[in-house]
Amino acid sequence: MRYPCPGNCGVAATRAHSGYRTENIAMSANIKEQVVDFDPATGRVLHPPRHVFVELTSRCNLACVHCPKDFGAELDHPALDMTLEVLNAAAPYLRQARFVNLNMVGESMLYRHFDEAIGLCAEGHAEVSFNTNGLLLSEARSRHIVASRVHSVTVSVDGIESNEPIRGVDYATLRKRILQLAAAKERAGSALPHLAVAFTLMRRNAGELARIVADLAGAVKLHAIYVQPLVVYYESLRGENPYRQSDVEAHVARAKEVAAAVGTNLVFFRSALEDDERNRKVGLGQIGQASGRYGCIDPFYEIKIRSTGEIMGCSYGLMPGLRVQEHDLEGIWNHEWYRTLRRHLHRQEFIGRCAKCPYVHGGILSQEDPVRVGVKHSQEARFFAGGYQSGGVA
User: Which of 100, 202, 219, 291 has the fewest CB atoms lying closer than 10 Å?
Assistant: First the structure.
């Protein structure tokens, strides 16, 4: 089974995660396409990956019910930390990248060499960002993040009442951690890191989105709140598919109104919603990977390195069978596997898993395509406690 990048945990959102600067807000949504130098005849990209994701650890201190990796089971993705050997093998990618995200699966700050990883990135010119569940944002850690000039930190928050059944931690705790990091910035007189929130939109929490926007953006300066629809990995969560919810657009519209009133950016991406970033003439830049020119921008723009050193070819989990310990950067980035995939995508040919990718296509069926039939998440009892039932159309 191929293991997908966890779109439900906010790693996608740390594409603001990807560190687009505030002054880029007025740039058009094809910002990534504008900086790709691609040769269609050979399938080669004539520059290193602009954006590198590094899974420092696949361990986590939460068990979010929508995460594709059930942290109650190993499946095909063992819980482990990246060795220093692998981290050093990844160094050429980090030094040449424009943006680096220190997470994929797992909680980055659990990694025992987290500070060394930030220092390694500082040897290049990348803007360093990471997504977090927020629990480890202590006062001391917040001070160090600010002092290290980390460019952006995105905290995953999935509701007010709903956050605890979904993620296993109460909203008040995360709110306190976010304000704590903001206070560390203020004391240091620093504009960095940009603070953002990632929100996974589902039936259970859609009505809480506007309240999250009002409460958090009213309490702290947020660079953005990033919203991505749930991708359904467990059969019991089919009823949480937001595209099956008749009033989801109304909830989105209400949240948009509140965001405008409090002056924060509310960005919908990797979705088929009317307010998705690809439907805007201006915005924060291209965050999702849908591309008019390249079909999917991921294999032209970015690369993902798992804790094992394995390369993940896209956010939906295509695996070329390559490792940073065994090939140099050029040998991986312009390997025949990548060049073949790029040629297909450039011709708008979505083959195999690409044809049903929820991150590019969106919609009821593609959101449920990766469902693990018969597999239950270890924390489903928590999610369904109190008589809650995951329904169909609201």
Answer: 219
